[in-house]
Design goal:
single chain, mainly alpha
């Protein structure tokens, strides 16, 4: 699933490790999410959207895989 995670993270000057800490996941999970290799669970998607102050559909695009 295509997402804006890398851009959103870069805008805040966060490393993958910093984002992982904020989301309580591993850096590898953040890397896989950014690379589109892993689709988040619904609770994680909500957590990501909330962290960035956005709606889930503004972070993740389910129309693009």
């Amino acid at each position: 699933m295509k997402n804006k995670l890398k851009v959103l993270r870069a805008e805040r000057d966060w490393s993958q490790a910093e984002l992982a800490d904020r989301l309580a996941v591993s850096r590898q999970t953040v890397n896989a999410l950014e690379g589109g290799k892993y689709d988040p669970s619904l609770p994680l998607a909500f957590k990501i959207a909330q962290l960035f102050g956005m709606r889930i559909e503004d972070v993740f695009d389910p129309q693009q895989g």
